[in-house]
Amino acid sequence: MASQRDASMLTVKEVNSTFAERGLGVKLPLPDHFVVKALDVLEKRDVPGGMGLLLSVRFINDQQEEVSDIFFCEGEVKGRRRKAPQAVELKHLPKSQLLPHRSTDSFASDDEARTYIAEAFSHLLQDKGYQPVDHEAVDLCFEDRGDRFYLNLAVRCDDAALEKAKEMAELRLKEGVDHEYGLAMLAFQESLGVPLLHQDRWMFRNTEYLAANRIGIYAVDNWNPNLIYGFTIYPQSRELKRYFMVTASQWQMVRQRYVAGRSQRRRESEL
């Protein structure tokens, strides 16, 4: 259904085009036809390869409802010399307690990966004041002063992961919009049979649907369980939002290092 708008309003597609015309490769994670009533830049931040913007957006959805939300978007800046990415020091990571690192990025089984993801995310939420509660509809559920964080676990980017995301969308209709809903997975899934290119394609195909339904995608670093990267949306909690803004600035660097390490391992195996 097309949204009604006056001449001063822009669609998401037009906003994204305006960003592009100004040399900024940032895109709002919303359907192109949604009408944007207001957009404010809350914060600018340099990220590896470009710039990150924390945006407050007021838009009209397909139900003709006016919705306000906050998104962290990042993209390349044309004409800017790329800065060498700097790793965040763990002492600056907004997390009071840290889990030990793993010695490898590989996982021997789905069960090992699922346990790792659950432990990493559980540790983060409890570090931010959430407590585990039982809920039969999801893999994990945490609560802080009445606010719940519903989470499903997906070992790999596949049809099963999308079904788990759709379950979250249905749960959100039932439980309401005041809670958090997410899908947690591994940052790199090649040891479990999923090429990095397949992960990228899965994310590209499904990001719009997930963002429109307020479902966060969270990727746990294969080596460091203290690093979880947020995609599509950020939680409303100030502390969690701050945490994911910090880890988001690391994602491109971590991905580049993984790709470089993978290439090096392939060359060594061919010798």
Q: Supply the number of structural domains.
A: 2
Beginning-to-end CA distance, first to last residue: 58 Å
The quaternary structure here is single chain
What do we call the CATH topology of the largest domain?
Rossmann fold
**CATH superfamily of the largest domain, please?**
af2093 domain
For the biggest sheet, the summary is: 6 strands, mixed
Fraction of residues in H or I helices: 25-40%
Structural class assignment: alpha+beta
Strand content: 15-25%
Number of DSSP helical runs: 5
Strand order of the largest sheet: 5-6-7-8-9-10
Give helix and strand order, one letter per element, not per position. Answer: EHEEEHEEEHEHEEH
Could you walk me through the main structural features you see in this protein, from its secondary elements to its overall organization?
There is one protein chain. This protein folds into 2 domains: 10-75, no CATH class; 94-270, Rossmann fold, CATH 3.40.50.10670. 35% of the residues lie in helices and 25% in strands. The chain contains 5 helices and 10 strands; from the N terminus they run βαβββαβββαβαββα. A 6-stranded mixed sheet has the order 5-6-7-8-9-10. The protein has a 4-stranded antiparallel sheet with strand order 1-2-3-4.
Based on the model shown, name its key terms.
2 domains, Rossmann fold, four-stranded antiparallel β-sheet, alpha+beta, six-stranded mixed β-sheet, 271 residues
